[in-house]
């Protein structure tokens, strides 16, 4: 019986450790890549969840900009791939960075983007202001 309690205790401890650890998918690079992909596809709901400290009017403006970016993407036959070139942290900061990306469209058009990010409570967000 003691063995069963020990096993249950080990499983509970393992569960708590993994549940409370920071999100491994929340890195500046991954957040910026996901944001820019959703932005150029016009996915407003996805974009909205990634933004940090934005008012409702600003979110609407971002959605309008994403709609224009989607049209741009369609003119270039779609977004082929997004590459992360570099992540530059602000001096003396581990929570503010800028992610440099290269976008390649299906018609061969290339575009560079820079996405500002911020880390809040072990999670990365897009910081547009």
Automatic annotation (TrEMBL):
Keywords: Signal. The lineage of its organism: Bacteria, Pseudomonadati, Pseudomonadota, Gammaproteobacteria, Orbales. InterPro entries: DUF4878. It comes from Frischella perrara. Transmembrane segments: none annotated. Residues 1-21 form the signal peptide. Pfam families: DUF4878. Residues 26-126 form the DUF4878 domain. This is Lumazine-binding domain protein.
